[in-house]
Specification:
Elements (H helix, E strand, L loop, with lengths): L5 E10 L14 E8 L5 E8 L6 E8 L3 E6 L14 E20 L6 E6 L1 E3 L1
Antiparallel strand pairs: 1-6, 1-8, 2-5, 2-6, 3-4, 3-6, 6-7
Length: 124
């Protein structure tokens, strides 16, 4: 299949709520980058996290196999360091092949949870 997407994506808005309601891990408040690699080559992914008051964190490295998707929870990023909860951040996601990135947040601090999903900004 012909690859689709861009090699560089930005999610300008990020925030992991520090608390959750409901059973873990399904209802744990989280941020996710949903990455689609529709091409025939594996995608080597690098994520860098930016903050308002400190140096960036990363790189966080992942592989998405050809013709596959991978959902990366920012809550689970821990190498080289965890992403802090209750802290504003932004992210840049880079790939060596074209990919598509969608951003999703589950905020379950209240029983009436909120789910947000939006496309990231792609550029080359």
């Amino acid at each position: 299949m012909k690859p689709i997407g861009k090699r560089r994506w930005a999610i300008a808005e990020g925030y992991i709520p520090g608390s959750s309601t409901g059973p873990a891990p399904a209802m744990t408040s989280h941020e996710t980058a949903c990455i689609l690699n529709a091409g025939d080559d594996e995608a080597n992914i690098v994520i860098t996290i930016f903050f308002s008051d400190r140096a960036p964190a990363g790189p966080y490295r992942f592989v998405v196999p050809p013709r596959c998707t991978r959902h990366i929870r920012f809550n689970n990023l821990d190498d080289p360091e965890p992403i802090p909860t209750d802290t504003d951040y932004a992210s840049v996601i880079e790939s060596d092949v074209p990919i598509v990135v969608q951003h999703t947040r589950l905020d379950s601090r209240q029983a009436e949870l909120a789910l947000l999903s939006t496309m990231a900004y792609g550029s080359d």
